[in-house]
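for the writeup, i need someone to sanity check this before i put it in the appendix. the sequnce is what the collaborator sent (i think, or maybe the updated version? ugh). structure was predicted straight from it, no edits. if anything looks off just tell me and ill rerun, i have time this weekend
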Amino acid sequence: MSVFQVLKTRLALSKTGQYRGMFDAALKIRQKEGYRSFYRGFAPNLIGIIPYAGIELGIYETLKTRISQTKEPGILVTLSCATVGSIMGQLCAYPLALVRTKLQAQAIRSDAAEHRPSGMIHVFQTILRTEGWTGLYRGLAPNFLKVLPAVAISYVVYEESRVALGLTTA
């Protein structure tokens, strides 16, 4: 997945005409920067999955259970619980997603030592030094606009599938 995230990030940030498409971008990135460049940002991405999923699912299940104690939740309850869970998960894990994106956007110039790419810790330190704590949340609002509909749909489909398959407790 990291390969495609790197390609998406690079294509989005590239100058017009820099790449003819996804395959051209992949070839040019591999030739100029090597295979390792496709895995830039993999560590913060992997580390960020754990708190995001744990917080999101934990809050979703806790709220759902407390709100609808004796019956299966309706769509509105599911949407509300999923939204709150996702927002809380994003607030905790978003700095890692931002660092991942910054790492993926780095163009590696192997011909000059001073242009060596920075690592995850260095990117965190740079953001904190130049922008402060709020810098770790730059771009969070558009991310909510992207993630919340997907999360809402996923949880509604999940709950409706449980009911259709007879996996309910009620």
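Residues 108-114 have pLDDT under 50 and may be disordered. The two ends are 38 Å apart (CA to CA).
thx in advance!!
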